[in-house]
Structures are given as C-alpha cells and as structure tokens.
# Entry
Amino acid sequence: MSSPSRLLSFTKACWGVVKSVITKFSSKFSKKTYTQHQHLAILCLMKYLKMHYRDVIDLLKETPGIRKILGLKKLPHFTTPNKFLLRISTTVLEFVLNKTANLFTVTKSIAGIDSSGYTQRHASRYYTKRCELRKTYLKNSICIDTKNQIIMTSRQSNGNSHDTLFFPSLLTRSSFLFPISNVVADKAYDSSKNRNFANSLWITPVIPYKECTKIIPASNRKLNKRIYHRRSLVETVFSVIKRKFDDTVHSTRFDNQKKEAKILDIVYNLYKYAQMMDYLLIGFLRSRRKYSG
# Structure
C-alpha cells in the first residue's frame, strides 16, 4: 500500500473544509449548476498549483480523480471561478481560514505577528521604470501559531498602512481560536496601546522597545530571547507561501487582491495539514512493514 499523492491529499482536505463552512448555494434562486464548494476548491487548487484560470480547468479535464472528489460531472468555463471570486466576501474566506487552523491541535500557543508585501502586477517592470511610476504592493498581516507554523488569522491592507493597525484585531480573533500565552512581534509593533491590549487578554507581549525609547537598554536586556526567537517562524511562513505558491496578486481591483491573499493563506494551511497527514500515513506504513517483516 503506497501513500496517496500530495495533490489528492490537498484536494480532500480542501473539500472537507469548504463543505463544513460555506453553504452549498449562495441563493435559493441560483442556477445550481455548480456549488460554492466546487468554486472555492477550484480557486484553492489554482493557487496551490500556481496556475491561472484556463490552466486549472485544463488540468481538471485530465484528472478524473480530482473531478470525482469535487463531484464535477461537467467542467465550468474558466471565467466561472473568477466570477465566484468577485462575489464571495472576505469575511467568508476568513471563516474558512479559521476552519483550516482548527484542523490542528493547539494546547497553549505562542503567537507570532508580522506582515509582508505581495506584488501588484498590473504593469511590466520595464513600463514602471520607464514612466517612473510609484511601485505599490498589498500588505498581508498574519498571526500564526509558532509551534505548528499555521496561520490563525490574517488581515490585508494597502502597503502604506502601518503594521500596528491590525495588532488588536489579529490577536483578538486568534485568542478566540486557541489559548495564547505569549505574543511575539518585532519593533514595528512597539506601542503602549498594543502592550496594554495584549495584557488585557492575559497574553504576555514579547516585543522589543524601539531605539528611540529611553528605557530600551534595561528593558531589552530583560527580553526573553528564547521566546522572541520564535518570531522568525513568521518569516518562514511567508517564505513558504511566496516560494511554493505565489508572491503576486493578479487581480486588478483592490478588494479582489485581498481575497487572493486570503486564499493563499488558506492554501498554506491546507498544504501543512496534507503534509502532516502524509507523514503520519508514511510512519504507519513503515511500522506495519517493520512488524510484519
């Protein structure tokens, strides 16, 4: 008995999550040709395989195994998933992201908060340089569980917004999902408001003081280096997303760019879950082979 392919494991995990979160149809007056589950699963597959709309539909033509999992009796036009992306709300995608985080067991979490930018590729680099246009980017702020390296919640904003704006909302939403003992962040999140807010949730903030603060020498020496070092795992999560999936949002409208970034976060969690299940299955098969031999 061999382990299933990583693609099938990802598809099964994705299908189980989307079926448990969103409704089958958006309205009782829907045409009911395809379900919302199928649309969102196709979008996740597209991001997972780093494809475009036409490419993922062509892939589904050649993969009956994936079509069987998704219950696709006929294939949609490549514009159909795009129209679904236009009408689904970011709030629903946030619920899906929270559901993917709940696939993991977390007892006492050390949360890590940071942000990174995604390229908004509307014009070529040559055109941008030639016309001296200002480069813009989408900022994705995430809160992760540093033990499992999963994204608990995320917020998207314009690249010019300050990092500290989403600290309260990220921490609040994450504390509803898992019990959090500490939160680690870099100096960009250093503010009395953020520290007091974390303490109000009975969470210990591990954030170094900025160099302009007078109390920096004494306070930063007392910083728990072992816990603060876990902040680098947020950079690891961003690195995996950008290298394995995509570092660019391709939509033109800003609202759809935020949805794309949210789907990338969902895909990352599903990838980690499929990876974990594969490791468990491989370990089980090896143990059977060992004792049967």
Summary: The mean pLDDT is 87. Residues 5 and 278 are 9 Å apart (CA to CA).
